[in-house]
């Protein structure tokens, strides 16, 4: 806007006021600037003058708050108040002449440049260092030379300018020295022996990096990791330096649409790529978008499942857009179910198996749709001619993983007057009961579709063969690696059996279980059990259990605890003090003494079948009578063990209790009842169990009876007490405590004080 001095009086203003004559000009600083007017603070005197924007001689867009201006003083005709007219902007003085090197710490926002109101020009800031101190200066877009945009971190040089009215220091004539080295992101796409390659996130390009440039654990670096790096030129090629790991998922190359599209495959991926094929996305799908058909590429990784695609397949998919070059492709491709209705391919039904033929385009059917067998609805009745011989997978030793093939059995039956035989397997038996030769059974017939081979299934025993060997009852007394022992029904002997003779699941067999078996003689006339079958529990220990609970001592354990003894049964000794009659030649007399009685016991006598009773242990028991023999035996035997905890470590400990050759008994902390934490010296009750595989004993069901003495702090030795008493403050050789730094609180207050003391100015605590 140009200024015409002749308009001064036409606008109703006088050329002078406040004693200043016409033509005298003053200087001041723009203090406030609005759309059509503003205010100036005079430099030579204390005055604040109004001015209208029409009185400014220059581009009003360049005028801002803080600018130095020169003006004349006039008065308003209506109000008589002094006003400023004929304004001119004064070019600021740049000091010093020497350029200063610094760095941009806050760049000017791009979205505000050129859009702010008059007087609200956006600013940035730069910093520089002088004598170890860092100073900050503001700048505006007009202060940058070359009309370029500066970014945070750019190296710059500039002059300093001091506003003589406000004293504010700012940067002027800013020149760019060096742009900040930008950090790039990417994903490691390949790793070699001493170098690797990164797929960049800013452009569709890979960049080389050497392992010496990786800042982190090189052993943990692998393909697919997100990284950031700096690009540098070396020998005319770009390389990545200062490579650092980023959190997984930081780098994103593409955006996948939420909406799913339907289309048709128009070109499939070749099974054998040609030598000249360089396209990583050789497949094509056609999709209708709006009113036009569009082809989208896809690659091998874009199919949601590893299904073989054919031309013409009806599919659904998402569209992926690469952020770098905006390339669109089809991804998450799935075949729609109606595709198979329109294709002319031959479809077969089968179940998954290991075959040489290669199946493609597999479609999952409901369970039970495909069957290889036909099972008859009719039930047949027959007699077992041959038993199943050998083990099933369930009847192997728990500690050995070898599997033995089982030989099939044979059942004879009649169908329409014709005598027939059919094989059967142990897996087709119902109820876990194994039939024997001569047993009457009921079954169905299963036929294999491919071969026509028949076998008996769903086999159920109707009647046992009464002419066979007598079946005996017993109780499992011991379980070893691949064999065990059975306590007879009279509880006085044990019978050996091998796991191969077990009919049923060996994993469900425990100590004390009731079993049924036959006796047989092997090499050396040794008796063993065969055809061992677990049956429902029976009253195995006897009847007429006495109500009196007696206390005794084990004088002989059972044979499973001490294999060196010949007798199977253990013995409990009961001693009772009292007056007992004796017969002399002429009269009956009473004497005072102790009556000792011994009661045998076996595995079924134990209240806890896994408990391991040792010789000399105190027990509580009751007396019962064996039904078959009338013999009296100990039953419901419960050991009375108490001992001290010797030590407790992380997850285990030891009890001072002698078992065999060891004077310490191991226990695990999970065996401690009520979740208590035991300490050394605690008195505990416990049970002893024998590990059948290792032959070692350990404690279980550990219960604390009483707590041990608490540890007492050891007093200081007399020599140390006498030494401390002899030390004086004047002793130069005595150890001294020197305070290096007084304690302070988190708010810089005096430490360790409940009440905060207020410091008085000039007073030192």
UniProtKB/TrEMBL annotation:
Pfam families: CSD, CSDE1, SUZ-C. Residues 715-756 form the SUZ-C domain. SMART domains: CSP (SM00357). One of its GO terms (cellular component) is cytoplasmic stress granule. The keyword RNA-binding applies. Residues 25-89, 183-245, 471-534, 640-704 form the CSD domain. Belongs to the UNR family. RNA-binding protein involved in translationally coupled mRNA turnover. Implicated with other RNA-binding proteins in the cytoplasmic deadenylation/translational and decay interplay of the FOS mRNA mediated by the major coding-region determinant of instability (mCRD) domain. Required for efficient formation of stress granules. This is Cold shock domain-containing protein E1. It comes from Astatotilapia calliptera (Eastern happy). The gene is CSDE1.
């Amino acid at each position: 806007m140009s200024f015409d001095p002749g308009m001064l009086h036409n606008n109703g203003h006088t050329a002078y006021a406040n004693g200043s004559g016409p033509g005298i000009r003053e200087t001041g600083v723009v203090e406030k600037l609005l759309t059509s007017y503003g205010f100036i603070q005079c430099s030579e005197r204390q005055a604040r003058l109004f001015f209208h924007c029409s009185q400014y001689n220059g581009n009003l867009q360049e005028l801002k708050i803080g600018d130095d201006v020169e003006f004349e003083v006039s008065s308003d005709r209506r109000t008589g108040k002094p006003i400023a007219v004929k304004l001119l902007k004064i070019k600021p003085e740049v000091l010093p002449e020497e350029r200063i090197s610094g760095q941009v710490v806050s760049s000017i926002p791009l979205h505000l440049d050129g859009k702010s109101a008059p007087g609200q020009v956006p600013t940035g800031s730069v910093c520089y260092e002088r004598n170890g101190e860092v100073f900050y200066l503001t700048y505006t877009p007009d202060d940058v030379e070359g009309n370029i945009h500066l970014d945070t971190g750019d190296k710059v040089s500039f002059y300093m300018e001091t506003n003589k009215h406000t004293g504010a220091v700012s940067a002027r004539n800013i020149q760019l020295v060096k742009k900040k080295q930008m950090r790039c992101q990417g994903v490691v796409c390949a790793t070699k022996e001493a170098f690797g390659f990164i797929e960049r996130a800013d452009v569709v390009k890979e960049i080389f990096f050497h392992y010496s440039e990786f800042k982190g654990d090189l052993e943990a670096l692998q393909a697919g990791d997100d990284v950031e790096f700096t690009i540098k030129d070396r020998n005319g090629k770009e390389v990545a330096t200062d490579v650092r790991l980023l959190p997984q998922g930081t780098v994103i190359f593409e955006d996948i649409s939420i909406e799913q599209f339907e289309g048709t495959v128009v070109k499939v991926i070749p099974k054998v790529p040609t030598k000249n094929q360089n396209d990583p996305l050789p497949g094509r799908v056609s999709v209708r978008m709006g009113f036009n058909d569009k082809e989208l590429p896809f690659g091998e990784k874009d199919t949601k499942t590893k299904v073989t695609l054919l031309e013409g397949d009806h599919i659904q998919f998402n569209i992926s857009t690469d952020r770098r070059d905006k390339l669109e492709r089809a991804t998450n491709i799935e075949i729609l179910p109606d595709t198979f209705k329109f294709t002319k391919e031959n479809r077969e039904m089968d179940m998954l198996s290991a075959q040489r033929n290669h199946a493609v385009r597999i479609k999952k059917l409901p369970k039970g749709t495909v069957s290889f067998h036909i099972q008859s609805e009719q039930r047949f009745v027959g007699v077992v001619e041959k038993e199943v011989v050998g083990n099933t997978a369930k009847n192997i030793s728990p500690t050995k993983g070898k599997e033995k093939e089982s030989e099939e059995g044979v059942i004879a039956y009649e169908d329409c007057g014709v005598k027939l035989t059919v094989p059967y397997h142990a897996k087709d038996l119902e109820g876990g009961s194994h039939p024997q030769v001569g047993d009457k059974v009921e079954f169905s017939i299963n036929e294999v579709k491919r071969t026509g081979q028949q076998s008996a299934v769903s086999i159920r025993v109707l009647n046992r063969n009464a002419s066979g060997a007598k079946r005996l009852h017993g109780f499992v007394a011991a379980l070893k690696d691949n064999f065990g022992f059975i306590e007879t029904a009279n509880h006085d002997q044990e019978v050996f059996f091998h796991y191969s003779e077990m009919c049923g699941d060996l994993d469900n067999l425990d100590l004390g279980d009731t079993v049924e078996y036959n006796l047989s003689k092997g090499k050396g006339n040794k008796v063993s059990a065969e055809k061992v079958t677990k049956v429902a529990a029976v009253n195995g220990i006897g009847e007429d259990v006495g109500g009196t609970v007696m206390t005794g001592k084990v004088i002989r354990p059972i044979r499973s605890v001490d294999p060196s003894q010949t007798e199977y049964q253990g013995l409990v000794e009961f001693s009772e003090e009292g007056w007992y009659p004796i017969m002399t030649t002429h009269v009956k007399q009473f004497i005072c003494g102790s009556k000792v009685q011994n009661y045998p016991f076996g595995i079924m006598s134990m209240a806890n079948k896994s408990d391991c009773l040792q010789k000399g242990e105190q027990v509580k028991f009751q007396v019962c009578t064996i039904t078959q023999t009338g013999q009296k035996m100990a039953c419901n035997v419960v050991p009375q063990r108490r001992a001290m905890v010797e030590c407790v470590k992380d997850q285990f400990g030891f009890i001072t209790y002698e078992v065999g050759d060891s004077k310490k008994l191991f226990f695990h902390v999970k065996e401690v009842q009520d979740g208590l934490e035991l300490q050394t010296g605690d008195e505990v009750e416990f049970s002893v169990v024998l590990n059948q595989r290792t032959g070692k004993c350990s404690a279980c069901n550990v219960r604390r009876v009483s707590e041990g003495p608490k540890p007492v702090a050891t007093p200081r030795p007399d020599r140390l007490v006498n030494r401390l008493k002899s030390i004086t403050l004047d002793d130069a050789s005595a150890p001294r405590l020197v305070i290096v730094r007084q304690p302070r609180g988190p708010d810089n207050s005096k430490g360790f004080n409940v009440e905060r003391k207020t410091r008085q100015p000039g007073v030192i605590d």
